[in-house]
Amino acid sequence: MAEELLKLQNIYKNFGNVKVLKDVNIKINKGEVVALIGDNGAGKSTLIKVITGVHSPNTGKVFFKEKEVQIKSVAQSRKMGIEAVYQERALCDQQELYRNIFAGREITNSFGFLDIKKQRKEAEKILRDYIGFTSKAITVDSQVMGLSGGEKQGVAFGRSLYFNSDLIVLDEPTMGLSIQETEKVLNFVKGLKNENKSAIFIDHNIIHVYGAADRFIILDRGEVVGEFNKEDISREELVQKMIQLHESGKIKVED
Amino acid sequence: MNNLLNSYFVKTHKLEISITIIAVVLFLIYFLGAPHVFTRFPIYRAFMQSMPFFGIIAISATFVVTLGEIDLSFPSIVGITSLIFGIIMTSTDGNFFIAFILATSLGMFAGLVNGLLVTKIGIPSIVATIGTLFFWRGLVNVISQGSGIAIVDVADGTWHHMIFVEKLFGKIPMQFIWFIVLTGLMQWVYRYHKFGNHIHFVGDNKASAQMMGINVDNVKIIAFVQLGFFSALAGIFTMYEMLYFWPTQGEGLMLTTLAAVFVGGTSVFGGKGTIFGTFIGVLIIGSLESGIVALGLSGFYVKFINGLMITVAVTVYALIQRRKN
Fold it and tell me: For chain B, which domains are there?
């Protein structure tokens, strides 16, 4: 039996009158990559924001490492070991790389002044060891603005590895990337399993999802409407299911 | 030369270098155009005397502008806090500590109101602070009933008068020393403190900053509160210099202060700025009036040239920004 890392139980989330999540139950084990799939507005983003502490659920329970927790802020979820990698909003464009890597958890002295030297040194390490940047054009003092989509993604990944998180949340990590860069990102996701880290992975591209994930959870209008292990479903069948869902609003589950 | 131009320092300080060059050229023009004025000390003493009043606020406002926000209410915060300072000084027979603490607390409270309106209620700062601009000035008028307060009897010749505005070695106005010290301190906070770092991230991209675990609302509120504090402080400096409170005190500060920030190169779009630039902006804006008159132009040109400087500066910065993107 695999060890459980995160469990969501009966999660509801409303924004005003709009019920975005309705009785969502999901579980993620250690060393497992789970893909969340579904159309726009299915509630995928809201669900991962509940996990990362951006939103609090209206009702429902969250268990992390088999203990019930209430994730009230991003800072708290990070402390617990949950790290988010957002495609577009991972980094701030006009700020230097080393500042981006430590934003929100700066290395400071007791008066709150930054240890710039240490931040730059650690950032250097992340660029070299975790991301494997060799290009001379990118240094820790570069502004994020000049980086390509894949490079930005790399920095966000490097950051999550450096802070030694157990669960990495990936929101559309391949959106807008070139084929080569997409390959790198998917390899990274696969590499997580070797380190016994878990990931939640959102992507519109089923081909990407299928290659990288162990399990698929299909969301539709705020509800979990299907859950498949990779062994039990082929890529074509998964695509078929999604088309079916799109056309009829239902998934046929044959046992 | 080529090496120098491509060095890391030059690359990362383009704005600071350009603004410094502009200031040097401007002072060269003064110097050559009116040597009889600008080769003598009194004009510089006059600058050192008058610049800190809006300079201190400009330095502090740089934090708010870097957030991508604006505060238009500070002239009235200067007004209300100076009034309270005057009332307490005269009614306690010159108790500096009580007057100072109450005036600056009121300034921070006014900043807190701005901060809460912007973050918790969600009113754009330009609108919210127009409201509080009128509100605090209105309160000044109601309380003062349009008359001034002389604090000369309780302030002149005291130790606090000495440390605020008297001349060091009989030459350098104390307020200028304070201005330099505060500028250094604020520059340090702006670049090397967690708070300054968060200011940059929130101004750059609010959503990203939030995702990185920065408490966006708190950062904004603190920024408005510190501007309230420094507005009060600037008011107190003015009171010691003039030894008098008048009900329109602070009203002339809006243009010069914000102009100094924008001429200094802090981005109107947020996320980028420089305290050093604002400091130079203060030297430029603060010297224009005397400079223009000394050059022999009529005083009617002052606003015109002021306007020209601001418009050209923000246009150039916007173009630099666009080329980068």
Answer: 42-324 (1.10.3470)
